[in-house]
Amino acid sequence: MTDTQTLDTQAVTAYLSRHLPGFQGPVEAVKFDVGQSNPTFLLKTPARNYVLRRKPPGVLLKSAHAVDREYRVQKALAGTKVPVAEMYLLCEDDSVIGSAFYVMSHVEGRNIRQPSMQGFSNATRHAVIDEMNRVLAELHMVDVEAVGLGDYGPEGNYYERQIARWTKQYRASETEPVAAMDRLIAELPKRMPPEDGQRTLVHGDYRIDNMIFEHDGSACLAVLDWELSTTGHPYADLASVIMQWQMPEGREGRGLAGVDRAALGLMSDEEFINRYCERRGLSGIDNFGFYLAFCFFRMGGIIQGVLKRALDGNASNPERALQIGRYVPMFAESGLEALDR
Q1: Inter-axis angle of helices 328-340 and 288-312, to 10 degrees?
Q2: Per residue, what are the HEC states of 223-292?
Q3: Is-contact 225 316, C-beta < 8 A?
Q4: Rounded to 10 degrees, what is the CA torsion of 43, 56, 233, 293?
Q5: Which residues have a Cβ under 8 Å from the Cβ of 14 and sit 6 or more positions away?
Q6: Are 261 and 267 in contact (CB under 8 A)?
Q7: Burial call 104-118: b when 16+ CB within 10 Å, e when fewer
Q8: Do 92 and 72 contact (CB within 8 A), yes or no?
Q9: pLDDT score recorded for residue 166
Q10: Under a CB-based contact definition with an 8 Å cutoff, are residues 266 and 131 in contact?
Q11: How many CB atoms lie within 10 A of CB 128?
Q12: CA torsion sign, 140 to 162 to 115 to 106?
């Protein structure tokens, strides 16, 4: 079994001492318990804290776990209206700790795991969700050419290539037949909307628990986990938020299904979409069910990969991976329902 839970702090200390200005050991590494893809560690030193994010060691799916892309996009976004951690260093030499990694600033703030935000005031809940909406709109208004990301993703139909990519990834990590997923894979290309000319930066996994907020306020301090980012179509990110909210509330689903949103000061799906459209100057969005179905499909492919890594012994959090892996059929069924709405 490949070890993803520990870090060779001696090797990290030696490397950072040579390559990171101002760095001084000793280092204590503490693994974050969130995230299923790229193991992430808090590096504690006497002077300050850092965060190290690495590829998992072992045999990986081609094009997955691209920490170099994560580093590049966050470095490019520095100075824009999209808040990101400060990037310090990228190491692509696998011989240092066994896989590529990068080091960034440790952003002190509040990581909100549940969108229901139990214990928050209604005003704070509304402000946090509105800030989430604002940052998403700002992300999709970044001039990709101006920040040096014009070549960050291929040209052409974003959904066409994403469906092809995630179908391939899903098949490569398939552990048992899922009839609903097979149907969804067959139906999505048939329902694809025509191109509308939008090509923006896309996060790929935009949700509240991939953000850091102020401890005592609603301002977003950093958007995290850029592994799936590319240039593509913005409605995939918007639909990703709505998809997450349709999940059950709690640790497993981290959604808002069954929650009385109005009573908690939370936006409805329609309010969130309308606010986003206002910020981007859009009149509305047609055929939103396709974008929602696409997000259910992609998330099903992602968690199938998580399950496969758990069974292969190189998941970042094996126990959690096995738990969420059983939800692949549910995501597929939800995707089919979204298509038919």
Answers
A1: 170
A2: ECCCCCCEEECCHHHHHHHHHHHCCECCCCCCCCECCCHHHHCCCCHHHHHHHHHHHHCCCCCCCHHHHH
A3: no
A4: -120
A5: none
A6: yes
A7: bebbebeebebbbbe
A8: no
A9: 94
A10: no
A11: 25
A12: negative
* Contact residues for 92 (Cβ-Cβ < 8 A; gap 6+): 68, 100
pLDDT for 2 equals 42
Token readout for 209 is: 């628990």
Helix 269-280 to helix 122-139 angle (10° resolution) is: 40
Q: Are 287 and 145 in contact (CB under 8 A)?
A: no
Domains of the chain by start residue, with CATH? 9-105 (3.30.200.20), 122-340 (3.90.1200.10)
Q: What is the pLDDT of residue 65?
A: 62
pLDDT of residue 145: 97
* pLDDT for residue 3: 46
Consecutive 10-residue averages of pLDDT for the chain (341 residues): 68 96 93 76 96 77 73 97 98 94 97 94 97 98 97 93 94 92 97 95 95 96 95 97 92 88 96 98 96 96 86 72 80 95 80
Here the tokens at position 2 are: 């490949």
The dihedral of CA 40, 172, 323, 332: what is its sign?
positive
Asked if residue 321 lies in contact with residue 36, where contact means CB atoms within 8 angstroms, the answer is yes
